[in-house]
Design a protein that fits this description.
Blueprint (H helix, E strand, L loop, with lengths): L3 E7 L2 H16 L3 E7 L5 H9 L6 E2 L9 H19 L3 E5 L3 H12 L3 E5 L14 H10 L3 E4 L2 H9 L7 E3 L3 H9 L9 H4 L7 E6 L8 H16 L3 E6 L4 H11 L6 E4 L4 H10 L2 E4 L3 H8 L4 E3 L7 H6 L2 E3 L4 H13 L1 H8 L10 H12 L8
Parallel strand pairs: 1-2, 1-4, 2-3, 4-5, 5-6, 6-7, 8-9, 8-11, 9-10, 11-12, 12-13
């Protein structure tokens, strides 16, 4: 009986994390032939995730180069994925989320008249320039998608409002929860000695991450000033900031935080298992990341979102995140409330995670099999 050829295309660290459990599920299922094509839009960060999950891509486009633009990335991905599709002839190409790899991988499949499956479909901020270029990428990908794997009912509603056929939308939960639950270990020992020496039990440790393009410059300065205000007004607070590789972000972090080295711990970016287990240990997370808004609630950690909007409104509705924007005073006010008001903290920490139960991958495989059953001799 012929197997269903499923080609997974991804290239950034967040994509790899969310696609990894799906790839592993495909590898183990005899109904499918799994083909993995990575673009390496992120190189080092992608490789660390591939190693963690023991994924060995059949195709590696290796497009990463210093100083390349979005257009450079798009051209390389479109051409590279097109060549792989012509070699492999997959029945369906899976792309994830909203990167330049996502859009151009889907476009290559469309041009070859191959079905597109969009994992994490239907996220919307409704501001075409924020996040940029992600909001446009995910909307454009949706136009040429055949199977929309929406994490939540809110995502499904977004797609329906845009005229997507309801029969092609499936609410699956988010694969990031599948990945997360597979690697968290309460006895985890960190490779970074700094982290092992932090008193997570008696200190209220804040994990800060910020890297988004729209927060570069003045917004990031506001965020850093708010963090300094927090440690100055709360003796039991410490901050961990894994610095993004961007030189401008690192320079600014050192300018603001070096004088507070006992209270603000500047560390190198962490690979996935390390970062996930760090999230599990801290008291509170402050971030401009989209993925963390989904992951942290599964660990019972409140999230303060350092952005003016979020494409994850279900997290706001569920009460697992609070939107602080990029105003210093507002950021500090919300954080102080969660640090000093035990009831406010418990309400967020105990809220139900709207992003699923860790079974998204098995649902996606069943949906693919149902839609391509004719290939395997079914009706």
């Amino acid at each position: 009986m012929e197997k269903i050829k499923v080609m997974s295309v991804f290239g950034t660290r967040p994509e790899a994390i969310k696609m990894a459990p799906l790839v592993k599920a495909l590898e183990k299922d005899e109904r499918f032939e799994s083909i993995v094509c990575v673009t390496a839009q992120h190189r080092e960060m992608l490789d660390s995730v591939l190693k963690i999950f023991n994924i060995k891509p059949q195709f590696d486009l290796n497009i990463m180069s210093h100083g390349q633009t979005i257009i450079d990335i798009s051209n390389k991905v479109l051409k590279g994925v097109d060549e792989v599709i012509k070699k492999c002839n997959p029945h369906i190409v899976l792309v994830h989320g909203d990167t330049s790899t996502t859009l151009n991988g889907a476009l290559a499949a469309f041009y070859n008249k191959v079905a597109v499956g969009h994992v994490e479909a239907g996220l919307r901020s409704y501001d075409i320039y924020s996040p940029f270029p992600e909001e446009a990428n995910r909307k454009l990908t949706g136009v040429i998608t055949n199977l929309h794997f929406a994490p939540t009912k809110t995502n499904e509603k977004n797609l329906l409002s845009e005229g997507v056929n309801s029969e092609k939308i499936y609410v699956t939960g988010n694969t990031v929860i599948d990945a997360l639950l597979s690697v968290v270990n309460e006895n985890h020992v960190f490779e970074d000695k700094t982290l092992n020496n932090i008193d997570f039990d008696n200190k209220k440790v804040i994990l800060l991450t910020t890297h988004r393009r729209e927060n570069w410059g003045k917004p990031m300065e506001n965020i850093f000033k708010a963090m300094i205000e927090l440690i100055n007004s709360n003796e039991n607070v410490e901050v961990i900031f894994p610095m993004h590789k961007n030189p401008s972000i690192r320079k600014l972090a050192h300018e603001y935080f070096d004088k507070y080295s006992g209270r603000v711990h500047l560390i190198e970016p962490l690979e996935y298992v390390e970062f996930t287990n760090l999230m599990a240990k801290v008291y509170l997370i402050m971030t401009d990341s989209g993925g963390i808004q989904e992951e942290a609630p599964a660990l019972g950690k409140p999230v303060i979102v350092l952005r003016t909007e979020t494409e994850r409104p279900e997290a706001l509705e569920a009460g697992t995140v609070r939107l602080a924007g990029i105003n210093r005073e507002n950021i500090a006010t919300i954080a102080n409330e969660l640090i000093n008001n035990e009831e406010s903290y418990k309400v967020m920490a105990q809220a139900t995670n709207p992003y699923g139960d860790g079974m998204a991958c098995s649902r996606i495989l069943e949906i693919i099999e149902e839609n391509f059953r004719f290939i395997r001799g079914g009706k």
